[in-house]
Amino acid sequence: MNERAKAGVQPATDHFLRPPSLHPNLHRLRRAALFQRLGPGLITGAADDDPSGIATYSQAGAQMGLQMLWTVPFSYPLLSAIQMVSARIGRVTGRGLAANLGRVFPRPIVTVLVGLLFIANVVNIGADLAAMGAAAKLVLGWSQHTFTVLFAALSLTLQILVPYHRYVRFLKWLTLALFTYVGVVFTVHIDWSQVALRTLVPQLAFTGATVTMVVAIFGTTISPYLFFWQASEEVEDEEVDPDTGPLLAHPEQAPEQLSRIRWDTYVGMGFAHLIAFFIILTTAVTLNSAGVTDIQTSAEAALALKPIAGTLASLLFSLGIIGTGLLAVPVLAGSAAYAISESQGWKIGLEHPAREAVGFYSVIGLATILGLAVDYSPLDPIKALFWSAVLNGVIAVPIMAAMMVVASRRHEMGQFIATLGQRIFGWLATAIMAAAAVAMFVLR
Fold it and tell me: CA nearest 421: which of 41, 88, 81?
């Protein structure tokens, strides 16, 4: 019996096959079924808007006003395509991304890519924990370091002690925290005609600062840890459900599973981009309009909002930082653990007890502890926030290229190679990220 049956939840298809007369609340049941279909894509998308991302989007809005809104609709099809490719690799092969890269590329190349991912994730975890601590201090007072340690301990405890099929439900509900940024918009006045104009027709100066900001936005939006996480969570979902399996071994499941991946990814990435749009918009119409352009962290953005947009806006912004941080830190630590463990051939999976996957959980613990150490080190967490996004933007390029090679090989993917559209947009995303990274170094 699978986990849904144990929990007393009927399969989504049952709701649609029964006559309407048996379901007076048919629409409610359909909505529930749709929500149940959302999983790795939704969580991955929500984790994309982590405190580091919130800081980057806040900086973009505060420094450049509405001029960076165009990056959101521009990056949506690119991120959706690359995330669909990563999910497809995991579901088709039954292996995570690092394991698949190891079957195609020489071990030293995979080791370097995984090592870069680990470094970027540790810096990102440290920046996120520091931002969460600062946000909690704004709301409750007390010591920022105390909150940072508590959040790190909570994240580790949940990952180590709670099985995946229960933990993933917690992560899914945490995505609702991001709606606080939609709420902030309704506390301020906005000229929507200008918003539409600048979203479609930006006015940008081609300078080093502008290009660096674009790379930071793309880097925090199209981040390598998202690729590894979504691919591995497809494998986790397949392993906890005895009725499913890798599509190479169960091709009859392909129509349903690939349709679910498309729905899950489009919704998850759309959710991520919607929140990013509102964060840039909020800080543009409040901070930038008031001449407050020197915003370095998400907590600074929340604090600066208070005298301009009111206490409610500042409170919502702070709560959003904490909520999305609780979602993102385990994703960051988990994706590093999946990548390293797969590349080393260790037993992996959040569904396994810690004693059965010692190496996997050790990486999670090490990444979280090293990230926590960033908060106590001489490393400036303000700079770490921004440059972790830039670092992600640079190292994403070789990882994306390697992914696209794997997804296009029939030897690895069989009849389920990436679709033509996924290959076009996936390689386009890779080329754009590469061009932006090169331009940043040339113009600096």
Answer: 81
Burial of 291 (0-12, 13-18, 19+ CB in 10 A): exposed
CA distances, 186 to each of 13, 181, 310, 321 (Å): 38, 9, 12, 18
Assess contact for 72 and 218: CB atoms under 8 A.
no
What is the token pair recorded at 277? 């749009």
**Residue among 295, 365, 371 at smallest CA distance from 128:** 371
Asked whether residue 83 is assigned to any structural domain, the reply reads yes
- CA end-to-end span of the chain, whole Å? 58
CA atoms of 136 and 154, how far apart (whole Å): 14
Residue 269: left (phi > 0), alpha (psi -120 to 50), or beta?
alpha
* Burial class, 29, CB count within 10 angstroms (exposed 0-12 / middle 13-18 / buried 19+): middle
Q: If pLDDT is split at 50, 70 and 90, which confidence band does 6 have?
A: very low
Place of tokens 């029964």: 18
| Average confidence score pLDDT of the chain | 80
Residue for token pair 């420094």:
63
Burial class (CB in 10 A: 0-12, 13-18, 19+), 207: exposed
Instruction: Report yes or no: 89 and 402 within 8 Å, Cβ to Cβ.
Output: no
Q: Is residue 225 a part of any domain in this protein?
A: yes
- Contact present, 257 and 37 (Cβ < 8 Å): no
Q: What is the CATH number of the domain that holds 209?
A: 1.10.4160.10
Q: Select from 358, 329, 365 the least CA-distant residue to 344.
A: 358
- Average pLDDT over every residue of 306-320: 71
DSSP 105: S
Identify the domain containing residue 263 by its residue range: 48-443
Contact status, residue 51 vs residue 328, Cβ threshold 8 Å: yes
Quick check: is 376 in a domain? yes
The total number of structural domains in the chain stands at 1
- pTM of the prediction? 0.80
User: Given a cut of 90, is residue 428 above it in pLDDT?
Assistant: yes
Quickly count: other Cβ atoms within 10 Å of residue 31's Cβ: 12
Per-residue pLDDT tens digits for 42-95: 778 777 778 878 888 888 888 888 889 999 999 999 999 999 999 999 999 999
Rounded (10°) angle between helices 71-93 and 97-104: 70
In a domain, 14, yes or no: no
- Each residue's pLDDT tens digit, 375-407: 777 766 556 666 666 777 778 888 899 999 999
Output the CA–CA distances (angstroms, integers) from residue 148 to 128, 142, 153, 372, in the order listed.
9, 11, 9, 7
